[in-house]
TrEMBL record:
This is HD domain-containing protein. Residues 50-137 form the HD domain. It comes from the Bacteria. It holds the Pfam family HD. InterPro entries: HD_domain. PANTHER family: CYANAMIDE HYDRATASE DDI2-RELATED. It comes from Chryseobacterium ginsengisoli.
């Protein structure tokens, strides 16, 4: 967490950027729900996670615009804001995947605003599935779009569809801050106390990268050592 005066200034600066309402031709939602969600991200997150989350929203939205997809902008924004908050101490559980922690936090937040159950479930899925390769891209538009936005920011998937003008405008508003160097340790910091939650998902690669001689749980071993007698 950034607790010093520097981060306070960063928060003020970033809130000012949001007040511009438009980056790369995409309108940043400023409804009561969107604003309160942003305030939670600024309060409990970090500058690094904040910038990443806003870039994810913008990249997701640009992908939606390019593909003429209909989606709920406010729900996509809230999902982007919460998608990595499961990595921070305030929202992190002792035994759930960080994606689920973020999804649960967003659901609780939206439930307090009287959002309908179907929309709560949509946001939950959008966040919980944002790292689930081979599934998320086939779900509802909001789920698929945020998955694409995360993939673009983290791994450069679809980079060829991003114009240089849009790329520069987004990075100017929400800098990457040595993203390649910092994102893996940021992931790990969020679940190093529960590495078992990475079994069966791509975050096991993070543990293998960060922990010398990390031993992954193996699905085939689970089958062969099950309690069945045969």
């Amino acid at each position: 967490m950034f607790l010093d005066a520097t981060f306070v200034l960063i928060k003020i600066k970033n809130m000012a950027v949001q007040k511009l309402k438009n980056v790369a031709g995409i309108t940043i939602p400023d409804s009561k729900i969107a604003t309160e969600a942003t305030e939670l991200l600024l309060e409990h997150g970090t500058e690094f996670i904040y910038n990443h989350s806003l870039r994810v929203f913008l990249f997701s939205s640009l992908n939606g615009k390019r593909q003429n997809m209909k989606y709920d902008e406010e729900l996509l924004y809230v999902s982007s804001v919460f998608h990595d908050l499961g990595l921070v101490p305030h929202y992190s559980s002792p035994d759930l995947r960080f994606e689920v922690d973020g999804a649960n936090a967003a659901r609780d937040f939206l439930k307090s605003h009287g959002i309908s159950n179907d929309r709560l479930q949509l946001v939950w899925d959008t966040i919980a599935l944002h790292t689930t390769i081979g599934i998320a891209e086939h779900k509802e538009n909001e789920v698929a779009l945020m998955y694409s936005g995360v993939g673009l920011d983290v791994m450069g998937e679809g980079y060829e569809h991003l114009s240089e003008e849009n790329r520069n405008e987004i990075i100017k508003a929400f800098p990457r801050n040595d993203f390649k160097k910092n994102i893996i340790p940021t992931f790990f910091e969020g679940f190093k106390h529960k590495t078992e939650t990475t079994f069966g998902n791509i975050k096991a690669d993070v543990c293998a990268f960060m922990i010398p001689n990390f031993e992954r749980k193996n699905f085939c071993d689970c089958i062969l050592h099950s309690p069945w007698s045969e």
